[in-house]
Amino acid sequence: MKPWMIGTFCLVLGAGMHANGQGMDHAGQCERASDVAAHIMHNRQKGGAKDNLLKRLDQTPATRLLIEKAFEQPRYHTSVMQDRARQEFALSHYRDCLQNAGS
Q1: Mean pLDDT, 10 residues at a time, the chain of 103 residues
Q2: 59 Cβ partners below 8 Å, 6+ apart?
Q3: Sign of the CA dihedral 99, 10, 61, 66?
Q4: pTM exceeds 0.85, yes or no
Q5: SS3 letters for the chain?
Q6: How far apart (Å, rounded) are the C-alpha atoms in residues 83 and 49?
C-alpha cells in the first residue's frame, strides 16, 4: 500500500475524538484501522460480496483500496484458515499504519 494511502486511511479512521475531548493517538488510529481491516477480511472469508462491502462501508479511497486488497487474497473454507487470514490481514495493516507514523 502506498504510504500516502496508509496515512489517509489512518487519518480517516482516527478522525473521531475520545469522550474526554482529546484526539485519538496514532496507535489508537492504527488499532481502529486494524479493526476495519479485520472486519473486511472476515466478511470476505465468509463469502460476502465485494459490492455489498463497498455499499455498506464509507466511500473513502483508503477503504475502497482496503476492500480491493482483501479480495485479492484467497478465500479459505476452514474456520482456522479464515481466522488466520483475518488476523494476518489486520496485523499487516496495523504494522503499515505504525510504520507510516515513523516516516
Answers
A1: 43 40 70 94 96 87 92 97 98 92 70
A2: none
A3: positive
A4: no
A5: CCHHHHHHHHHHHCCCECCCCCECCHHHHHHHHHHHHHHHHHHHHCCCCHHHHHHHCCCCHHHHHHHHHHHHCCCCCCHHHHHHHHHHHHHHHHHHHHHHHHC
A6: 18
Q: Are 97 and 34 in contact (CB under 8 A)?
A: yes
The Cα 24–Cα 15 span in angstroms is: 8
Hey, which residues does 23 pair with through a beta bridge? 17
Grid cell in block for residue 23: 484526539
Which residues fall within 8 angstroms of residue 37, CB to CB, at 6 or more apart?
A: 66, 70, 89, 90, 92, 93, 94
